[in-house]
Amino acid sequence: MAWRATGAIMAIALIAGLAGCRARAKEAPVTVFAAASLEKPFREAISAFEEAHPGLKVRLNLAGSQHLRAQLEQGARADVFASADERQMDLARQAGLLAVAPQEFTRNSLVVVTPAANPGKIERLADLASPGKRLVLAHNGVPAGAYGIVALEAMSRDAAYGPDFARRVLANVASQEEDVKFVLAKVLLGEADAGVVYQTDVTLQVRDKLLTILIPSGFQPSIGYQVAVLKGAGHPQDAARFVGYLLSPEGQALLTRHGFLPLR
Questions:
Q1: pLDDT grade, residue 179 (50/70/90)?
Q2: Is residue 264, in this structure, part of any structural domain at all?
Q3: Structure pTM?
Protein backbone atom coordinates (compact mmCIF):
# COMPACT_ATOMS: atom_id res chain seq x y z
CA MET A 1 0.00 0.00 0.00
CA ALA A 2 2.86 2.33 0.90
CA TRP A 3 4.54 1.44 -2.38
CA ARG A 4 1.37 2.36 -4.30
CA ALA A 5 1.13 5.69 -2.46
CA THR A 6 4.75 6.47 -3.16
CA GLY A 7 4.26 5.56 -6.84
CA ALA A 8 1.21 7.80 -7.07
CA ILE A 9 3.09 10.70 -5.52
CA MET A 10 5.94 10.22 -8.01
CA ALA A 11 3.49 10.12 -10.92
CA ILE A 12 1.81 13.32 -9.76
CA ALA A 13 5.20 14.99 -9.38
CA LEU A 14 6.17 13.87 -12.89
CA ILE A 15 2.92 15.19 -14.38
CA ALA A 16 3.35 18.49 -12.53
CA GLY A 17 6.91 18.74 -13.77
CA LEU A 18 5.86 18.14 -17.37
CA ALA A 19 3.07 20.70 -17.03
CA GLY A 20 5.59 23.20 -15.67
CA CYS A 21 7.88 22.55 -18.62
CA ARG A 22 5.00 23.12 -21.03
CA ALA A 23 4.06 26.34 -19.23
CA ARG A 24 7.64 27.58 -19.36
CA ALA A 25 7.83 26.67 -23.05
CA LYS A 26 4.66 28.63 -23.69
CA GLU A 27 6.07 31.62 -21.79
CA ALA A 28 9.15 31.69 -24.05
CA PRO A 29 8.54 34.38 -26.67
CA VAL A 30 8.20 33.91 -30.38
CA THR A 31 11.30 35.65 -31.73
CA VAL A 32 11.02 37.70 -34.91
CA PHE A 33 14.13 38.95 -36.71
CA ALA A 34 13.02 41.88 -38.89
CA ALA A 35 14.62 44.52 -41.12
CA ALA A 36 15.08 47.85 -39.33
CA SER A 37 12.73 49.64 -41.74
CA LEU A 38 9.88 47.47 -40.40
CA GLU A 39 10.16 48.72 -36.83
CA LYS A 40 6.99 50.81 -36.52
CA PRO A 41 4.54 48.51 -38.34
CA PHE A 42 5.95 45.40 -36.68
CA ARG A 43 5.67 46.84 -33.18
CA GLU A 44 2.03 47.62 -33.90
CA ALA A 45 1.50 44.22 -35.56
CA ILE A 46 3.00 42.42 -32.57
CA SER A 47 0.73 44.29 -30.15
CA ALA A 48 -2.33 43.33 -32.21
CA PHE A 49 -1.13 39.74 -32.56
CA GLU A 50 -0.47 39.36 -28.83
CA GLU A 51 -3.87 40.82 -28.03
CA ALA A 52 -5.51 38.27 -30.33
CA HIS A 53 -3.52 35.41 -28.71
CA PRO A 54 -3.61 35.90 -24.90
CA GLY A 55 -0.55 34.52 -23.15
CA LEU A 56 1.58 34.59 -26.28
CA LYS A 57 4.57 36.94 -26.34
CA VAL A 58 6.60 38.06 -29.36
CA ARG A 59 10.13 39.43 -29.12
CA LEU A 60 11.36 41.69 -31.92
CA ASN A 61 15.01 41.92 -33.01
CA LEU A 62 15.67 44.73 -35.50
CA ALA A 63 18.76 45.29 -37.65
CA GLY A 64 19.86 45.45 -41.25
CA SER A 65 18.67 42.36 -43.13
CA GLN A 66 22.24 41.34 -43.89
CA HIS A 67 23.19 41.46 -40.18
CA LEU A 68 20.15 39.44 -39.17
CA ARG A 69 20.91 36.78 -41.76
CA ALA A 70 24.53 36.63 -40.57
CA GLN A 71 23.37 36.25 -36.95
CA LEU A 72 21.14 33.36 -37.96
CA GLU A 73 23.96 31.69 -39.87
CA GLN A 74 26.15 32.00 -36.76
CA GLY A 75 23.60 30.16 -34.63
CA ALA A 76 21.21 32.83 -33.33
CA ARG A 77 17.80 31.31 -32.56
CA ALA A 78 14.64 32.84 -33.97
CA ASP A 79 11.24 31.76 -35.26
CA VAL A 80 10.61 34.25 -38.10
CA PHE A 81 12.87 36.17 -40.48
CA ALA A 82 11.50 39.22 -42.31
CA SER A 83 13.95 40.62 -44.86
CA ALA A 84 13.86 43.89 -46.77
CA ASP A 85 14.98 42.16 -49.94
CA GLU A 86 14.95 38.86 -51.77
CA ARG A 87 18.75 38.52 -51.83
CA GLN A 88 19.20 38.18 -48.06
CA MET A 89 16.30 35.76 -47.87
CA ASP A 90 17.76 33.70 -50.70
CA LEU A 91 21.11 33.55 -48.89
CA ALA A 92 19.25 32.36 -45.79
CA ARG A 93 17.58 29.68 -47.90
CA GLN A 94 20.91 28.57 -49.35
CA ALA A 95 22.27 28.29 -45.81
CA GLY A 96 19.44 25.91 -44.92
CA LEU A 97 17.84 28.29 -42.43
CA LEU A 98 14.27 28.26 -43.73
CA ALA A 99 11.57 25.79 -42.75
CA VAL A 100 9.25 26.83 -45.59
CA ALA A 101 9.44 28.82 -48.81
CA PRO A 102 9.50 32.60 -48.17
CA GLN A 103 6.60 34.83 -49.12
CA GLU A 104 6.53 38.45 -50.17
CA PHE A 105 4.31 40.33 -47.72
CA THR A 106 4.77 44.02 -48.57
CA ARG A 107 6.63 46.48 -50.80
CA ASN A 108 8.31 49.86 -50.50
CA SER A 109 9.84 52.66 -52.59
CA LEU A 110 12.83 55.00 -52.37
CA VAL A 111 12.94 58.76 -51.88
CA VAL A 112 15.66 61.37 -51.53
CA VAL A 113 15.52 63.46 -48.36
CA THR A 114 17.30 66.67 -47.40
CA PRO A 115 17.22 68.72 -44.19
CA ALA A 116 14.27 71.14 -44.22
CA ALA A 117 16.68 74.10 -44.54
CA ASN A 118 18.21 72.39 -47.60
CA PRO A 119 21.77 73.73 -47.11
CA GLY A 120 23.02 71.80 -50.14
CA LYS A 121 20.42 73.41 -52.42
CA ILE A 122 19.26 70.02 -53.70
CA GLU A 123 15.91 70.64 -55.32
CA ARG A 124 15.79 67.91 -57.98
CA LEU A 125 17.41 64.56 -58.58
CA ALA A 126 19.92 65.99 -61.05
CA ASP A 127 21.39 68.12 -58.25
CA LEU A 128 22.71 64.99 -56.53
CA ALA A 129 25.49 64.87 -59.12
CA SER A 130 26.61 68.51 -58.68
CA PRO A 131 30.16 68.71 -57.31
CA GLY A 132 30.60 69.44 -53.62
CA LYS A 133 27.39 67.88 -52.32
CA ARG A 134 27.53 65.70 -49.18
CA LEU A 135 25.45 62.60 -49.71
CA VAL A 136 24.86 59.63 -47.45
CA LEU A 137 23.63 56.20 -48.57
CA ALA A 138 23.17 52.85 -46.94
CA HIS A 139 26.09 50.52 -47.60
CA ASN A 140 25.65 48.55 -50.81
CA GLY A 141 25.57 45.34 -48.78
CA VAL A 142 22.40 46.64 -47.09
CA PRO A 143 19.15 46.24 -49.07
CA ALA A 144 18.46 49.99 -49.05
CA GLY A 145 21.98 50.66 -50.35
CA ALA A 146 21.72 48.06 -53.10
CA TYR A 147 18.34 49.46 -54.12
CA GLY A 148 19.83 52.95 -54.26
CA ILE A 149 22.52 51.80 -56.70
CA VAL A 150 19.86 50.19 -58.91
CA ALA A 151 17.93 53.49 -58.98
CA LEU A 152 21.05 55.50 -59.87
CA GLU A 153 21.95 53.06 -62.65
CA ALA A 154 18.41 53.35 -64.04
CA MET A 155 18.74 57.15 -64.12
CA SER A 156 22.08 56.82 -65.90
CA ARG A 157 20.29 55.06 -68.74
CA ASP A 158 18.06 58.11 -69.21
CA ALA A 159 19.35 60.84 -71.53
CA ALA A 160 18.07 63.50 -69.13
CA TYR A 161 20.72 62.46 -66.59
CA GLY A 162 23.50 61.08 -68.77
CA PRO A 163 25.48 57.81 -68.71
CA ASP A 164 27.89 59.01 -66.01
CA PHE A 165 25.16 60.17 -63.61
CA ALA A 166 25.61 57.30 -61.12
CA ARG A 167 29.39 57.78 -61.09
CA ARG A 168 29.05 61.53 -60.41
CA VAL A 169 26.52 60.96 -57.63
CA LEU A 170 28.63 58.30 -55.96
CA ALA A 171 31.62 60.66 -56.04
CA ASN A 172 29.64 62.88 -53.65
CA VAL A 173 28.95 60.13 -51.11
CA ALA A 174 30.45 61.17 -47.77
CA SER A 175 29.52 57.97 -45.93
CA GLN A 176 27.77 54.64 -46.35
CA GLU A 177 25.78 53.46 -43.35
CA GLU A 178 25.04 49.97 -42.06
CA ASP A 179 21.36 50.76 -41.57
CA VAL A 180 18.90 53.01 -43.42
CA LYS A 181 17.92 54.50 -40.04
CA PHE A 182 21.44 55.89 -39.71
CA VAL A 183 21.11 57.48 -43.15
CA LEU A 184 17.98 59.28 -42.01
CA ALA A 185 19.59 60.31 -38.72
CA LYS A 186 22.58 61.91 -40.48
CA VAL A 187 20.27 63.95 -42.70
CA LEU A 188 18.16 65.03 -39.72
CA LEU A 189 21.31 66.09 -37.85
CA GLY A 190 22.52 68.14 -40.82
CA GLU A 191 25.55 65.91 -41.32
CA ALA A 192 24.59 65.36 -44.96
CA ASP A 193 22.99 67.47 -47.68
CA ALA A 194 20.85 64.52 -48.80
CA GLY A 195 20.28 60.83 -48.34
CA VAL A 196 18.35 58.00 -49.97
CA VAL A 197 15.85 56.28 -47.67
CA TYR A 198 12.61 54.36 -47.92
CA GLN A 199 9.38 56.27 -48.39
CA THR A 200 8.20 54.70 -45.13
CA ASP A 201 11.07 56.38 -43.22
CA VAL A 202 9.46 59.78 -43.80
CA THR A 203 7.04 59.44 -40.91
CA LEU A 204 4.82 62.07 -39.32
CA GLN A 205 7.41 62.52 -36.58
CA VAL A 206 10.13 63.70 -38.99
CA ARG A 207 8.18 64.95 -42.02
CA ASP A 208 8.37 68.64 -41.04
CA LYS A 209 12.14 68.36 -40.57
CA LEU A 210 12.77 67.13 -44.10
CA LEU A 211 12.25 67.96 -47.73
CA THR A 212 11.40 64.95 -49.87
CA ILE A 213 12.21 64.44 -53.53
CA LEU A 214 10.26 61.61 -55.12
CA ILE A 215 12.01 59.17 -57.43
CA PRO A 216 9.81 58.47 -60.49
CA SER A 217 8.44 54.96 -60.85
CA GLY A 218 10.52 54.35 -63.98
CA PHE A 219 13.68 54.54 -61.86
CA GLN A 220 12.36 52.66 -58.84
CA PRO A 221 13.80 49.24 -58.09
CA SER A 222 11.42 46.44 -57.21
CA ILE A 223 11.47 46.49 -53.40
CA GLY A 224 9.73 43.42 -52.03
CA TYR A 225 9.91 42.38 -48.37
CA GLN A 226 9.95 38.63 -47.71
CA VAL A 227 9.11 36.61 -44.62
CA ALA A 228 9.58 32.96 -43.64
CA VAL A 229 9.37 30.63 -40.66
CA LEU A 230 12.84 29.41 -39.69
CA LYS A 231 14.06 25.85 -39.36
CA GLY A 232 14.42 24.87 -35.73
CA ALA A 233 11.85 27.46 -34.62
CA GLY A 234 10.85 26.94 -31.00
CA HIS A 235 7.26 27.90 -31.82
CA PRO A 236 6.67 26.90 -35.46
CA GLN A 237 2.87 27.03 -35.26
CA ASP A 238 2.81 30.44 -33.59
CA ALA A 239 5.45 31.65 -36.05
CA ALA A 240 3.26 30.51 -38.95
CA ARG A 241 0.28 32.30 -37.37
CA PHE A 242 2.29 35.53 -37.19
CA VAL A 243 3.26 35.22 -40.86
CA GLY A 244 -0.39 34.55 -41.66
CA TYR A 245 -1.35 37.71 -39.77
CA LEU A 246 1.03 39.79 -41.89
CA LEU A 247 -0.59 38.41 -45.06
CA SER A 248 -4.15 38.80 -43.76
CA PRO A 249 -6.34 41.77 -44.74
CA GLU A 250 -5.83 43.20 -41.25
CA GLY A 251 -2.05 42.88 -41.47
CA GLN A 252 -1.96 44.33 -44.98
CA ALA A 253 -4.09 47.29 -43.88
CA LEU A 254 -1.69 47.93 -40.98
CA LEU A 255 1.33 47.93 -43.29
CA THR A 256 -0.43 50.28 -45.72
CA ARG A 257 -1.20 52.70 -42.88
CA HIS A 258 2.53 52.88 -42.26
CA GLY A 259 3.22 53.85 -45.87
CA PHE A 260 4.12 50.45 -47.26
CA LEU A 261 2.80 49.45 -50.67
CA PRO A 262 0.21 46.70 -51.14
CA LEU A 263 1.19 43.38 -52.65
CA ARG A 264 1.10 43.17 -56.44
A1: confident
A2: no
A3: 0.83
